[in-house]
Amino acid sequence: MAIKEELVKAVKEHAKNNYEKGWDTVVECWTDDDILACIDNARTVRGAIYKVNQVVRCHKARRDEIRAEIF
Fold this sequence. Notes:
Helix content: over 70%
Shape: elongated
Largest sheet: none
Strand content: under 5%
Low-confidence stretches: none
Number of helices: 4
Distance between the termini: 46 Å
Radius of gyration: 13 Å
Mean pLDDT: 95
Structural class: mainly alpha
Order of helices and strands: HHHH
Number of strands: 0
């Protein structure tokens, strides 16, 4: 398995394990290509998860803002 495939697999596993912490978007909406684009040149699992987490945090913050306005 190529390194990029391993990184995508690791990110997907992390997303499943952290579904309730904002990673649900990755699980439900992101394709492997989306993950690949986001991890860019990451060479380690930790680096790949970090890069995706930057986007997840932004999405979660915005979603939390919207929910706060609704409730």
